[in-house]
Design a protein that fits this description.
heterotrimer; A alpha/beta (229); B mainly alpha (293); C alpha/beta (346); A: Rossmann fold; 4-stranded antiparallel beta sheet; C: 346 residues; alpha/beta; 12 strands; globular
Chain lengths: 229, 293, 346
């Protein structure tokens, strides 16, 4: 069907850990420019689905497609061109940040990993810090010396370094206070507008879902799932 | 709480007494070790020893002011020789501990980083080797090679790598599944970069600690081998050799010949062990607090 | 027609008036905190985590302490439970009443008093990582029984209580016989809650008890706390989740930069917040304006002499360079020179 351009999709994905299946023939489509909300009970496989879409977990069956083309490889074997188009924001900023790196190094890491020149890295880090509202004195600190909200903002900056087309947020604001949550949402929504990015929003908060998501997908507790876009 | 303070949270309810012995123990151990290492380093300058000198007119003298630990069966001052024996034992112990840790680090590193069936095979090998009594295995190894410095180091290295392998492997396995590794991968990092930039820096402090903890074990293993006559050649007088040589004096009633080297081993290895344990306790909660999972 | 609000300069004598008159209150507070201050000595700075904190908690009251992360509310919980690190200095008083023989000042009483008289009456729920809080070589059942035995219950009482409290938190009886590593994150959280509730404490201090849980479990835990208060016990709920506070709290205390800036009955706060920060915080909720509070909170190592919210406040004037004190206002108290609604003619 036409209209496969500009979307990240999981097609008939079945995935689990060993013998335990948590996703059974699930279909999910995220179009560029839209915010898709994902709702599921705890243990219902939503984190697994996020990891499959982020190309971190190989599904037992089914595939992930980007702009209609199937993605080959998982984890390290994904081509860089595809990697940089998908970014993830995790629930716990403390777990998602290497405790030894300063916030500036944290944000710069994806650029260093893809061997960008130093001056470009410096500029990008400064721009991104500005975007998420991190002042210069915070950038030099390590995770243990900043609050959860500040750390999650740094993680958001890190996620946006490659200017991804798709941003997957796995309960990314669950641990944040209301003001920081609103701020993070505002930054992401702005970015979405300027880059026509697609966002997957996984959250338990019904108010947040109502306010932010364009449409909501329900993931039933891992059982037979009629494929739903 | 970790963002406000840098010290470990201590519940006031824990009886305060428990904190003090731990700290004085480490302080004493540190002092002892400092003295021992300084003595070892300065020995050739301050108290040079001629290994081949014998004084057959002073055989088996009891401890006195002139000879604080007496003399042995060849009239040599026991305390003086014990100091040099400590140099040898510590050096051999340190090198052997390093070899053991490197072997363990490599095996554990491969198992933890690669995972899957490689991990399973390597761990079965570890379990198999661990099932053998390590001193017997060490004797076997020395028996296969000619007794020499190299054989002793090989013997220690090949029997003491197991715990390091397990530590490194478990550390890597637990780190691999943390979101910050996933974040690095989605950021575009290659496998090599994740390993060197994100995983190894967490493992290396533990490795340094592992080496330190291993030194007392290595020293004891060498001492045991030497005591059995299977260790270092006699011209490399380690403390173990001295204890072995002292057996003859013991039977002749001169109990001091083995006492000094024995006491030195016990005190020095105990000091190292106490310090390393103290270091390990300080390392762990901070690491856990910083990772906060 | 002028409303009956008035901002007076004296400190409110007691907060008894804040408790909803429909809930039966006791003759006096369970917890009476006066001028509590907590400072941390760092190498190159001093962190003022809690400054001049005064509030009371009555029997049957569920007090929610809310604020941004890093405002000091978690430190408050740790201070009341005696869990502060060595470099902390605590001033002021925190009296725990309803004990067998007289009140105890949590700040100054020693270890022995805490262990002998307070433990069991005062419980803390600080589930930062339940996995490390649970003894890995004990099953859930044994942990609960041991806790009760330590609080001077008999063996017979302890055995039945484990199943009772497990049912209360929603833990399957079968799960009681599992070891902590066999429990999922949610189950471990429930077990930690059960351990805190087992000795039936008069006052429970819960620090972010629902962080990281999914919605049904959050609601379940909150309702559990609510039921305790309906039964006459008291709870201090420390949380950044305003929706949770709105669901179950009787009273709300808003903390900002180490101070309580607003302390009012919950219904009043959620419909008509008095402090500009409280109002801005509510505006950030997704079912309201979803608008973040502009600016950044000050570092706790560099608090300004005047109102700490001044630089971010749309109503700030020169007088705000003087530190506002907590003063009686509309069924509660607020620390502001320009509380919302003051002087409004309606």
């Amino acid at each position: 069907m036409s209209g496969t351009a500009g979307q990240l999709a999981a097609e008939q994905v079945t995935a689990g850990y060993g013998r335990q299946i948590v996703l059974d023939r699930v279909d999910l489509r995220i179009g560029r420019g839209e915010t898709v909300g994902l709702r599921a009970a705890s243990g219902g496989g939503k984190s697994t689905l996020v990891r499959v879409l982020a190309l971190l977990h190989r599904p037992d069956r089914g595939r992930v497609t980007i702009d209609g083309a199937p993605v080959t490889g998982t984890r390290y074997s994904v081509p860089v061109a595809v990697r940089t188009r998908i970014a993830v924001l995790f629930q716990s900023p403390r777990a998602a940040a290497d405790p030894r790196l300063s916030l500036a190094d944290l944000i710069a890491e994806p650029l260093r990993a893809t061997r960008r020149p130093d001056d470009e890295i410096r500029r990008r880090v400064a721009d991104l810090a500005d975007l998420v509202g991190l002042t210069a004195d915070l950038l030099g600190r390590r995770p243990h010396a900043v609050s959860d909200g500040q750390l999650q903002r740094a993680c958001l900056a890190r996620a946006l370094t490659h200017r991804p087309d798709y941003l997957l947020c796995d309960e990314a604001t669950a641990m944040l206070d209301a003001s920081t949550q609103a701020h993070v949402a505002a930054v992401i929504t702005d970015y979405q507008r300027t880059h026509r990015a697609g966002v997957l929003l996984v959250t338990h908060d019904p108010a947040l879902m109502n306010r932010w998501a364009d449409r909501v997908v329900d993931l039933p507790p891992s059982g037979v799932v009629p494929g739903r876009p | 709480m970790a963002d406000l303070t840098r010290t470990r949270t201590v519940a006031f309810r824990r009886p305060r007494l428990r904190l003090r012995p731990g700290q004085t123990g480490a302080a004493v151990a540190g002092a002892v070790l400092l003295v021992a290492v300084a003595a070892c380093l300065l020995a050739p300058l301050l108290w040079p020893l001629d290994q081949s000198a014998v004084a057959l007119d002073r055989i088996r003298l009891a401890p006195s002011w002139a000879h604080p630990a007496g003399t042995d069966e060849l009239g040599r001052d026991v305390a003086h020789r014990a100091l040099y024996g400590l140099r040898v034992s510590l050096l051999v112990g340190a090198v052997a501990a390093l070899v053991a840790t490197v072997i363990g680090g490599i095996v554990g590193g491969i198992a933890g980083a690669v995972g899957g069936w490689v991990d399973r095979i390597l761990m079965r090998i570890v379990d198999t080797v661990a099932a053998l009594p390590h001193l017997l295995l060490g004797i076997f190894i020395v028996g296969m090679l000619r007794p020499s410095l190299g054989a002793v180091i090989a013997s220690i290295g090949l029997t003491h790598w197991l715990s390091t392998a397990r530590i490194v492997r478990s550390e890597l396995l637990s780190l691999r599944n943390r979101p910050f590794v996933d974040a690095a991968i989605t950021g575009g990092a290659s496998r090599r970069r994740v390993l060197t930039r994100h995983l190894l820096p967490h493992v290396l402090p533990r490795l340094a600690l592992a080496i330190t903890l291993m030194i007392p074990h290595a020293v004891w293993h060498e001492t045991a081998l030497s005591f059995l006559g299977l260790g270092l050649p006699p011209h490399l007088a380690s403390l173990g050799n001295m204890i072995n040589d002292g057996q003859g004096s013991l039977l002749a009633g001169a109990w001091w010949a083995s006492l000094a080297p024995g006491a030195v081993i016990v005190v020095v290895t105990l000091a190292i062990a106490v310090l390393a344990a103290h270091w390990r306790d300080r390392l762990d909660p901070r690491v856990r607090a910083e990772l906060q999972l | 027609m002028k409303t009956d609000q008035s901002v007076t300069a004296e400190r409110p004598a007691g907060i008894a008036s804040l408790v909803d008159p429909q809930r039966p209150g006791g003759p006096g507070p369970v917890l009476d905190v006066q001028g509590l201050g907590v400072r941390f000595r760092l190498r190159d700075a001093t962190v003022h985590a809690v400054t001049d904190l005064t509030l009371g908690v009555h029997p049957g009251e569920l007090l929610a302490v809310v604020g941004e992360s890093g405002c000091g509310k978690s430190v408050l919980a740790h201070a009341l439970l005696g869990l502060l690190p060595r470099n902390a200095t605590v001033t002021g008083q925190a009296r725990l009443h309803q004990l067998d023989d007289g009140p105890v000042d949590l700040v100054t009483c020693g270890e022995r008093v805490l262990a002998g008289r307070v433990r069991g009456r005062l419980a803390g729920l600080v589930p930062q990582s339940p996995a490390t809080a649970l003894n890995p070589v004990r099953t859930g059942r044994r942990l609960i029984e041991e806790t009760l035995r330590a609080h001077r219950h008999t063996r017979a009482e302890a055995v039945g209580a484990a199943e009772r409290v497990a049912a209360e938190v929603g833990l399957d009886v079968a799960d009681l016989d599992r070891y902590p590593h066999e429990l999922s994150g949610g189950m471990a959280q429930r077990l930690v809650t059960a351990l805190a509730l087992a000795p039936d404490p008069v006052l429970l201090i819960a620090d972010e008890p629902t962080s990281g849980l999914d919605r049904p479990l959050v609601d379940h835990t909150l309702d559990l706390l609510r039921r305790r208060c309906d039964g006459g016990k008291s709870v201090v709920l420390i949380t950044h989740d305003l929706a949770a506070a709105e669901r179950v709290a009787d009273t709300v205390a808003v903390m900002y930069a180490s101070r309580v800036v607003e302390h009012r009955p919950a219904r009043r706060f959620f419909t008509a917040p008095a402090h500009p920060y409280g109002a801005a915080l509510l505006d950030a909720l997704p079912d309201r304006a979803f608008r973040p509070v502009p600016g950044h909170p000050p570092m706790l190592t560099a608090l300004p002499p005047g109102c700490a919210f001044g630089t971010r406040c749309p109503y700030a004037t020169d007088v705000c360079e003087r530190q506002p004190r907590l003063a009686a206002y509309d069924a509660g108290a607020v620390a502001c020179h320009h509380p919302i609604g003051a002087g409004v003619v309606s």
